[in-house]
Amino acid sequence: MTRQVGERRPRLHRDHVLEVAVALADEHGIEALSMRRLADELGVVPMALYKHVASKEELLDAMVDRVVDEIGPSGPPGRRWRASARARILTARSTLLRHPWARRVIETRTARSPIVLTYLDSVAAILLAGGLTPELVHHSMHAIGSRVWGFTQDVFETDVPAPEPDPDVMAELAARLPSLVRVASAVSHDTDSAVGYGCDDQYEFEFALDLLLDGIARLHRAHWQPPARS
Amino acid sequence: MTRQVGERRPRLHRDHVLEVAVALADEHGIEALSMRRLADELGVVPMALYKHVASKEELLDAMVDRVVDEIGPSGPPGRRWRASARARILTARSTLLRHPWARRVIETRTARSPIVLTYLDSVAAILLAGGLTPELVHHSMHAIGSRVWGFTQDVFETDVPAPEPDPDVMAELAARLPSLVRVASAVSHDTDSAVGYGCDDQYEFEFALDLLLDGIARLHRAHWQPPARS
DNA sequence: CGGTAAGGTGTACGACGTACACCCGTCAAG
DNA sequence: CTTGACGGGTGTACGTCGTACACCTTACCG
């Protein structure tokens, strides 16, 4: 990390800055990404970054672009729109899973960059190629919502209160939250803890995605029409 | 706002702190809510807040609790689970719409408070009362995901690039993003701008919600079973 | 009346993002 | 070979943030 005297540090390039920024966020979480920390990591003084990046906001924009770009290009759109859309979205998901901070950051972005728009366009293209009307595509993309990105804000993202299987606490819980407890224990009887969810994210994601795609396919088959405007 | 000499400031109460915090976030956005600013608003020194609130994080937790509580109690669960669930979620949405910062904050919370769990329990209760199996309820709640909260991370939350209807820019856009442009202009031909989405959030929300509830109802009718465990 | 505890104050520290003035190396033009 | 401009790294400094800690004030109870 430290450098010998006389040894020259190679010049910074924007790409290098972004690469290290992404790596840092991947490894230590987005909240660990400060301009100062990033500069340290690059062996450089904080202000040096501003020669490559307009501000921290712009840095985050560029980082998002970088991971969205990583999703890669879409295959040629064909008739089998349902399978194509599913595959494209699951690819996006697997990319985003490598950068857990990306979801949160995407959600805070206000402007959509060309790269991001290109990705969205590729999804729209798949649906249009399947013959869905533009109106149906429009509502469908809204409906899929954050799932187009390969993520969901899940209701119980993290574990429900106590990993502790204290029977008193359990009884208390069951009394206060009878329905949740019933639902939770139905699914997790294969794991040890009754409440501490061992639930399969990937399965849940695909379950919901398929629910939506099925619904869309049904509307499409039924020649869904936009409701009359008031 | 400033206080006369000799006039006594009434003592702070936690509720009052929270009330003002929520009002401040409502009015000036969550990023304007600093401990110092909040203290100012209350006519008090910043550190005074720490007698009522453990930390800023805990303050945010409590603020979320406050708005979730505002959703109000659930009606008695009955047979008509689909309508009940729909109504409950739309109520949640209308509450959350009054506090635009709440979505973002909820998403950053890691722990689920009792109040939040109570709300989730009420939704689960509705589905269970409709006769859905606990397993189906479980997956359904995951599927509805952020929509249980009455919000969505929408794909194009804000307007797509140029409100400017410059024909050159439009041609450029149409060339680069043909599908998006088609989709966008299909829906917004009733508004003036071709790309600057005038789209009905509430409609989009209900469209997606119904898609999901329909799908769930269909699975329920078909006596859906959890897939065999590996 | 005197003590205790709850609650407001003052000062201070170590982050943070970034403005601004600077300086140094490289390279093209004279 | 000199010069000067310019891209890019540096140093210092400012204002803001959350909050630790020691202090002081007030209200109330015995």
Head-to-tail CA distance between termini of chain A: 65 Å
- Oligomeric category: homodimer
Tell me the β content of chain A. Answer: under 5%
* CATH fold annotation of the domain at 1-53 in chain A: Arc Repressor Mutant, subunit A
CATH class of the domain at 1-53 in chain A: Mainly Alpha
Most extensive chain-chain interface? A-B, 62 and 62 residues
Give a verbal description of the structure.
Two copies of one chain form a homodimer. Chain A is mostly helical. Chain A has a domain at 1-53: Arc Repressor Mutant, subunit A (Orthogonal Bundle). Chain A has helices at 14-28, 35-41, 56-70, 81-97, 101-108, 114-129, 134-144, 167-176, 178-187, 201-221. Residues 1-7 and 192-196 of chain A have low confidence and may be disordered. The structure holds a DNA duplex (30 and 30 nucleotides).
Question: What is the topology?
Answer:
2 copies of one chain form a homodimer.
Chain A: H1 14-28, H2 35-41, H3 56-70, H4 81-97, H5 101-108, H6 114-129, H7 134-144, H8 167-176, H9 178-187, H10 201-221
Chain A binds a DNA duplex (30 and 30 nucleotides) through loops.
